Amino acid sequence: MALGSIASKLAREIGSVVKKAVSSNRGWYSPHMAAASCAIAQRLPLVDLIVEIRDARIPLSSEYELLRIVPPPCPPSKRIVVMNKMDLTNPTQIKEWMRYFEQQKCISYGVNSHNKDSVKGLLNFIQAQARELNKADHRFSDAITVMLVGIPNVGKSALANSLHQIGRISAAEKGKLKHALVSPQPGETKDISSLKIGSHPNIYLLDTPGILPPTIHDAERCSKLALTGAIRDSLIGLKDLAQYFLAILNLSDQYEKWAKLSTNWGKVSILEHKEEHSSSSKLEMRQKRQYLTDHTQDFMVHDVRRALFDAISSFDGNLECEDDMVKLIEAQFVALREAFHVQEEIDQNVQDKVAVKLLNLCRTGRLGHYTLDPVPATH
Ligand SMILES: Nc1nc2c(ncn2[C@@H]2O[C@H](COP(=O)(O)OP(=O)(O)OP(=O)(O)O)[C@@H](O)[C@H]2O)c(=O)[nH]1
Questions:
Q1: What is d(CA 293, CA 286) in angstroms, rounded to the nearest whole number?
Q2: Does the pTM exceed 0.95?
Q3: Distances from the Cα of 299 to the Cαs of 269, 275, 306, 348, in angstroms?
């Protein structure tokens, strides 16, 4: 899905807010990031393999710019681009991206670090690269050092933990399992840590803190980084970011998949009503209630999808017209307040509360899978 011009415009506007926040010294480039940049830059030329982790939703915007400073005779075989969070991206578009990387003679791989089989595949891939290095140069026979680098929150630590866990089991290693810190907040990894991920040859993985450049000139890129969680929400207006996501959703065909929810999916209240009047045994009723408690989140997701579908499908404006898009988004906010059970009378920051909940669903892939960067045209 190429972002529509309206979504791009919103992205640029939100990006400007982020940039302003940075220039007023509340930016993402903290002192620890500056210190980590130096430490990583010093080590980069010394490691045997550089694995650059990108967010599969933004294969271009999540580029790790620090790599541009690695001195030239760095052979391309020394670098791999790994696109993580494949479970959150658009499968068709990511295939186009993989083709693009191949055309650019860039070694790339897609992974979901929450999926064991997927991580096993990546581990085999890294081990094969390590064996190639070993074959080409026997200096590498003792140990190979792999450095995981990337911008904040792309899943470096999650991946490092999974590779360490799986690598140890297959190498029958003993001793304590190490754990890199994983968090939904960007910038939580503060130090470089080493985890063993393979034997024969021994492979050591360095997990590093996420780094962004001190300034990003492209406002649209800032918004994409914010939406995917690489930049803290506290730097941005939550409502702005949620509006940007809604514009993306409204211009995609994702919502069409939720059409059946509009008519077929029973509301919790209907189920409860049926419970009262059915002749079910008490046990069945208890089981149903248990089911409802366990699936509150699922019901909420359904309510949200239905609210969004109903708003878009009953809207008769032109989504390519900015004013119309803004009207639709405002209507969606009202509908979402109800779907998320945010109470107007009590809550002061109703819109922010709706925005936080919406962004949470968006970032966990429950409102569709998107690739926000279009593949560059090749000639
Ligand atoms: N859906 C999904 N979430 C993931 C995946 N990999 C990591 N995450 C989540 O992404 C968030 C960030 O993961 P981290 O491993 O802490 O990211 P990081 O790159 O080390 O972050 P920094 O400390 O900022 O450098 C966490 O909430 C992870 O659970 C993935 O493949 N899919």
A1: 11
A2: no
A3: 11, 17, 10, 25
Least trusted range by pLDDT, from 92-101, 185-194, 234-243: 234-243
> Do residue 231 and residue 310 come from a single domain?
yes
Looking at the domain assignment, is residue 51 inside a domain?
A: yes
Residue 152 Cβ < 6 Å to ligand 1: yes
* ipTM of the predicted assembly exceeds 0.95: yes
The CB of 155 under 6 Å from ligand 1? The reply is yes
Residues 153, 302, single domain; the answer is no
**Ligand 1 pocket test: which of 182, 211, 231 has the largest number of ligand atoms within 8 Å of its C-beta?**
182
Residues contacting residue 312 through CB under 8 Å, at least 6 positions apart = 250, 255, 328, 332
Both 68 and 169 in a single domain?
A: yes
Which of 188, 180, 181, 190 lies closest to 230 in space, CA to CA? 188
Query: For 24-48, what is each residue's pLDDT tens digit?
Result: 545 778 888 889 999 998 888 889 9
Q: Is 198 in the pocket of ligand 1 (CB under 6 A)?
A: no
pLDDT tens, residue by residue, 273-326: 444 445 455 555 555 555 554 566 678 899 999 999 999 999 999 888 888 999
Residue 318 or 18, more confident: 318
Cis peptide before 201 (omega within 30 of 0): yes
111 and 246 share a domain? no
Question: Does residue 8 contact residue 217 with C-beta atoms inside 8 Å?
Answer: no
Residue 25 lies in a domain: no
State the distance from the centre of ligand 1 to the C-alpha of 113, rounded, in angstroms: 8
Higher pLDDT: 227 or 349? It is 227
Show the domain range for 65.
Answer: 30-207
Question: Concatenated DSSP letters for 255-293?
Answer: GGGGHHHHHTPPPHHHHHHHHHHS---HHHHHHHHHHHH
Query: 268: pLDDT confidence band, cut at 50, 70 and 90?
Result: very low
pLDDT score at 46: 85
Same domain, 272 and 328: yes
Strands (E), the chain: 49-55, 79-84, 108-110, 143-150, 193-198, 202-207
Position with higher pLDDT, 270 vs 54:
54
Among 348, 271, 352, 337, residue whose Cα is nearest residue 303: 337
- Tally the domains of the chain: 2
Q: Are residues 85 and 40 in the same domain?
A: yes
